Amino acid sequence: MREVLSAGLEARLYGRQGCPPLQFKLDKFFGSAWLAAMKIPEFKPSKRFVRGIKLPCLVGKVKNSEFSGIATRYIATTRRDPVCKIFLRVENLQKHSDWLQQTLKYLFKKNGLTDGVTKVLKGYMKTDAEADVEWVYEDFEEDERERVRDLGLAPYFRVSVIVVDEVERKVFVVGDTETEVFHEDDAGICFSKGRWRFDDWGRYAAKFSQQEEDEAREKLRRTWETIFPPPPKNTQVEDDGYLLFGVWRYNPKETAEARKQCGMPQDKIDSAFSKGTGLLTQAFYYAPTKYELLFSGYTAKKWIVERYERKGNWYEIQTESEGPWNRILWCDGDRLTAIGSEHVYTRVKNSYRKGKVLKRYSKW
Predict the structure, then answer these.
(1) Which of 39-43, 170-174, 215-219, 258-262 has the lowest mean pLDDT?
(2) Is the dihedral of CA 107, 176, 79, 155 positive or negative?
């Protein structure tokens, strides 16, 4: 019967007039089990996880028309059949665990995904008193609202991403509708511990982005240290900041050269000369009891220094409050950089510092 419900026939059934299609009447009474089970998609190894994050995984694709009861109304009215990407975060790329095999079978062959999404979306349309939430229907045409009340949101919901996470033992289904209903990037439908519910998809995906950023930052720090090396382990710590005292201005040429030596991409090297960031006028002024952040020579903010500690070419500044960025510096008297940063400063005459605070910086 699944073959009979082809995209073309569904489109004819989904006219603006008349009753809902037979498929949805059957879905309403029998769930999705009456349809022939879809096949488990084929998966291939990939170096990219969701949102382009570098993480080894398995990736597959499936069209929305292969899900029974999901996106059917959307496909019929738009004549589009969006492709959904499926990501498997696995512990072993070569071997599927029992949990993963059972979950894939439940989601696709037993139509568990369709039933779960449909159930959650129906709950989305109800209040605790089980009364229709009128705002749900506001973006639908008048003659379409009755269908939404009868069929729920599943026929209008197109799936864009599915994540099956073997490590955390959960499934995320992410999608959207043509209306404002469920139109939030951070919203997702989650299956975990045998239960379907809404969950924070944005938070789940963001932690992988944060992990990637942390790894990139650590890699940059290690590479940066090959150009601005740390002191030997047995170097004595001294109370000394004399070499820092004076004005250090951002140097785009030195920055570009350091980035080039680090093997950064060309666009990153070129951005050292960008005029839109304010970096070209940025400087720091260091004195025995304070240091200041300068723009165009004017003081933007200042900190009271309690102590300078020197260990070879590395300096740590202890202040009464947190300073900007990293307060551990590398300085050889000619160049200065913060450990873990991407910027290089060189010494300029003290006259560059005007000793005045502009009003726009006074509230910093």
Answers:
(1) 215-219
(2) positive
Calpha distance 248→317 (Å, rounded): 15
The structure tokens 């299956």 sit at 191
SS (H, E, C) the chain: CCCCCCHHHHHHHCCCCCCCCHHHHHHHHHCCCCCCCCCCCCCEEEEECHHHCEEEEEEEEEEHHHCCCCCHHHHHHHCCCCEEEEEEECCCCCCCCHHHHHHHHHHHHCCHHHHHHHHHHHHHCECCCCCECHHHHCCCCHHHHHHHHHHCCHHHCEEEEEEEECCCCEEEEEEECCCCCCCCCCEEEEEECCEEEEEEHHHHHHHHHHHHHHHHHHHHHHHHHHHCCCCCCCCCCECCCHHHCEEEEECHHHHHHHHHHCCCCHHHHHHHHCCCCCHHHEEEEEECCEEEEEECCEEEEEEEEEEEEEECCEEEEEECCCCCCCCEEEECCCEEEECCCCCCEEEECHHHCCCCECHHHCCC
Cβ atoms of residues 288 and 241 within 8 Å: yes
- Angstrom CA distances, 229 to 146, 221, 272, stand at 70, 10, 22
Q: What is the C-alpha to C-alpha distance for residues 279 and 353, in angstroms, rounded to an integer?
A: 16
Residues 63, 29: Cα–Cα separation, whole Å: 25
The CB density around residue 169, as the number of other CB atoms within 10 Å, is 14
pTM beyond 0.85: the answer is no
Question: Above 60 in pLDDT, residue 138?
Answer: yes
Name every residue whose Cβ is closer than 8 Å to that of residue 307 and which is 6 or more positions away in sequence: 239, 317, 318
